[in-house]
Amino acid sequence: MNLAKFLILIVLFLTGCTQNTTQQYKDYIFGTIIDIKIYDENPKKSEKVANLIFNDFHRLHDYLHPWKPSEISNINDAIKINRWYQIDDPELIEILIDNKELSKKTDNWFNPAIGGLIKLWGFHADLPENKLPSTSKILDYLTNLPTMEDLIIENKMLRSNNKMLQIDLGGYAKGYALSRAKKILLDNNIKNALINIGGNILAVGQPGERFWRVGIQHPRKPRAMATINLLPGWSIGTSGDYQRYFTINKKRYSHLINPNTGFPADNTQSATVLFAPSENSEIKSDVYSKPLFIAPKKFKVELAERLAIKNFLIIFDDGQILISKEMNEAIEWIDIPNEEVLQIH
To answer: Strand pairing partners for 332?
Structure first.
């Protein structure tokens, strides 16, 4: 599926007595719909910059793909046979080092080394395989559970101490793509834009006198459960069990796998994090929603505090909502009873 890059939808915004327009462009990359909105800019320039972003996203998708032929799959093949692999691209080295650091900071609740486990569950395919792996295979995998600490990078050479290590950057790529998109926008003097990669969203500037306003998806209903104004430079990301999953005997199995149990995490329906502009904030808005989703309930608040996540919203498996005070003040609920919301002060 490939939605036309040149699709342009004009949305009118009224600011005072002046009429300004927003150009909207869509494509299908990273297994999701990409939506770019650019406000108050020459349409030809907007289309050119949108295509620069789409082209970079396609490059990253092909470059970092975990199971189709890519630089990552080449690395994984080398690790399987305990062979050194040479990396000539400094961008990839920086990405891998960043993932090592993020994994360590999250106590490996974010673990890009478990690509083999994700494959075992049938999620290394465009559509889930709808089949449960054998418990014995999962337990066998856990006896030699890989982490990013097993990955050794020396100069331009890479290898792993653990042949079970298989890199999967699916929990990182969208955030990294957002950071790249921000650079492209700024390099081309685009001052007001909104980039949405399947729920991972970055706001640049604002559309006139108002802010960019986005919805937070209800994990069990086909609508938003809340809306929020994204201030200039802010980014938001959500991990949910409704994005990639299959159901067997009425039980939902999502692609968000707990590396400590070997099974998809089942204590949470969705986790949303919001970050003010700072170093790597776009990446954090993607990555940090994963440990908040996967970690056991008793660890989630402590983990959020340790990762300096001031704005978070977690919906547990029973529908109860856990939200930070800062996040609760920033959003506007849509038909959510107060008794379902537990605010953390």
So the answer is: 227
Global confidence as pTM:
0.92
Residues 6+ apart with CB under 8 A from 64: 70, 71, 72, 95, 169, 173
DSSP assignment of 229-297: EE-TT-EEEEEETTSSEEEETTEEEES-B-TTTSSB--SEEEEEEEE-S-TTHHHHHHHTHHHHHHS-H
H helix count then E strand count, the chain? 10, 18
Contacts of 51 (CB under 8 A, 6+ apart): 5, 25
The superfamily in CATH containing domain 71-160 is ApbE-like superfamily (1.10.3980.10)
Domain 211-337 maps to which CATH number in 3.10.520.10, 3.30.930.10, 3.30.230.10, 3.30.465.10?
3.10.520.10
Kindly give, in sequence order, each residue whose CB lies less than 8 Å from that of residue 166, ignoring residues fewer than 6 positions away: 66, 76, 79, 80, 113, 114, 115, 116, 119, 146
Strands 321-324 and 341-344: parallel
CA-CA distance, 230 to 235, in Å (whole number)?
A: 7
CA angle, corner 303, sides to 298 and 309, nearest 5?
A: 130
Residue count (the chain): 345
Taking a C-beta distance cutoff of 8 angstroms, is the pair 323, 314 a contact?
yes
| Helix, strand, coil percentages for the chain (3-state, nearest 5) | 30, 30, 40
List beta partners, residue 226.
Answer: 216, 333
CB-CB contact of 138 with 120 (8 Å): yes
pLDDT in tens, 267-318: 999 999 999 999 999 999 999 999 999 999 999 999 999 999 999 999 999 9
| Phi/psi of residue 163, nearest 5 degrees | -70, -10
